[in-house]
Design brief:
TIM Barrel, alpha/beta, 9-stranded parallel β-sheet, 36% helix
Amino acid sequence: MALADPSKSSAKPKRKAILGVAAIAAVVAVGAGAWFVFDPPGGPIGPIGLEIPPKIVAQRPPPAAPQFAPDSDRPAAAIRGQAPAEKPLKPQIEPVTPIKIAIVIDDAGIDRKRTRRAISLPGPLTIAFLVYANDVAKQAKAAAAAGHELLVHVNMEAESRAVDPGPNVLLRNVEPDVNLKRLNWQLGRFTGFVGVNNHMGSKFTSDPENMTLVLRELKRRGLLFLDSRTSPKSVGAKIALSMGIRTAVRDVFLDNQPELAAVRRNLAKTEKIARRTGSAIAIGHPRDATLDILAEWLPAAAARGIRLVPVSHLASRQAHPSNHAVKR
């Protein structure tokens, strides 16, 4: 019987052990490879030569601008019943009702240069022409073409004999038909006027009988009466109102002191009256100081809530408070 080779018999268990270790190593290697392939640090990768796109992270889109419905300042979402995005509230501004001021330029026509300057001012103004001025009809026509309103500045008797009211003046001590003839002459010197105011007249306007004569003719012609209030004793406005004539009353004289500061101060006074009562009437004259200040004041009036109007817009059949009668 042949004996077994001891080296060969011992080799079998060694080979089995090596194979076992190799098998375990293979299993470990396969597992590690699978982990590395399917869940490596930094994200999965695919087989060699393939690229797995990185993970896509959903991002929130930017908010859309609000859509406004046509012809509306409300967001469309609000119109559809959805809550619109909040926006700052706008301050509520109360509408301001403009005050009304009428500026009357008396004694127009005699000083043609300054009358032209008065006509060139922004309006509407009311310009009262002395009818005995040269070429008065042409001057009045130019004033109307510039958008101004016209009055006949009827000269009437003053308290003082030192002043000259001009030709064909209405006087207390003449016959009624004489005064009526003189009045009709004055009203026939030009056309396009809406009414009459008194030039001087501190004595004549305080006489009820003579004023009734004058006002009756104005009513017949459908004219208004502006009482210049050259006297605190004037009965002109009171009688005119009692007769149903459209009547206005002067509130402020701008230039009894023909100085820049005085005119500016009297315009401020006019504004103050208008803000208290809603309207005011100021009378000035074609003088340099008056025209200089009006050239500044008139263009800026609207921005201060002032509506410049012709005096006819303030004439009424109801009484209006008057201020500061000044004898002339």
